[in-house]
Specification:
The chain has 277 residues and is mostly helical. It has one domain. The protein has twelve helices and no strands. The longest helix is centred in the N-terminal third of the chain and has 33 residues.
């Protein structure tokens, strides 16, 4: 069964489909990050409430055709989830690399499927569900033995992903990940990757603090981290840098989607790449 799925996922038609789905998903992610950066910029100027990705989608409903935009973004997120599903069956490299790739794609599959479900529900029913979802699942986690340890491990994983993004921004090969891109585009990409990594590290720090303090009721997501940060006047320059970085990341993602050249870490390349050497 697994071999049959792998053969189906590596067929030329499946590769083309995965590449197309990845382009749609990258475009949706780019729009979301650009909007998230814009809202963060407005929040730094005290003109808007700081929000996370899901809060950004909710904010779109206040504008004409907002539900249509949210629905189209949901289609993009679902496309990205399916592309990561393809990538689960097309890993390449050493056994450790294959294990790492599959773990990453499984995590991203769940992430984008969840985001797609949230966006579809929001677009169709004008409701974003439970606004305290993060707090509720952390409280549920704490109700089990070893819940605090589990939350610390989750925080460590998120911090590891954020650290990996910082490594990509500082030491990764932008020429290899963005072949043919100009220096300005590669620089904006590095800036955006660094901002995204910093945001994930902030979320990890907040979750770790909840675990150490044993206060699950204080758990929150990206929006809560940004709102906590903006409460400090000295953090305003950092907020402006984060906003600029997130918008840069979003714009470069849109450029990547238009050109059809996904970075090597994107699922399309895992699904469309030739057999490993």
């Amino acid at each position: 069964m697994t071999d049959a799925l792998k053969n189906a996922a590596t067929s030329p038609a499946a590769r083309r489909a995965a590449h197309g789905l990845t382009r749609v998903g990258i475009a949706a992610r780019g729009i979301l990050y650009a909007l998230l950066g814009l809202i963060t910029l407005l929040a730094a100027a005290h003109l808007q409430r700081a929000r996370g990705p899901k809060g950004t989608l909710v904010a779109l409903l206040a504008y004409p055709a907002g539900r249509i935009v949210v629905f189209l973004l949901a289609v993009g997120f679902l496309s990205f989830a399916v592309a990561h599903l393809f990538a689960l069956f097309t890993p390449h490299g050493s056994p450790w690399k294959i294990w790492g790739e599959r773990t990453l794609h499984l995590f991203l599959l769940a992430t984008y499927a969840s985001l797609a479900l949230f966006a579809f529900t929001l677009a169709l029913y004008r409701t974003g569900g439970n606004p305290h979802q993060t707090r509720d699942w952390v409280e549920w986690l704490f109700s089990w033995p070893g819940g605090r340890i589990a939350l610390l491990l989750i925080a460590l994983g998120i911090a590891g992903f954020g650290g990996f993004e910082e490594w990509r921004a500082a030491l990764g090969s932008s020429r290899q990940e963005l072949p043919g891109a100009r220096l300005l585009v590669r620089s904006l990409w590095r800036f955006g990757i660094a901002a995204r990594g910093a945001l994930f590290i902030g979320v990890a720090f907040a979750l770790a603090r909840v675990a150490f303090d044993n206060k699950p009721q204080q758990a929150g997501g990206m929006g809560d981290v940004l709102r906590a940060l903006i409460a400090y006047p000295a953090a305003r320059p950092l907020m402006l840098l984060l906003a600029a970085g997130l918008m840069s990341y979003g714009l470069v993602e849109l450029l990547i989607a238009r050109r059809g050249e996904a970075p090597e870490t994107a699922p399309a390349n895992a699904a469309a790449a030739p057999a490993p050497a």
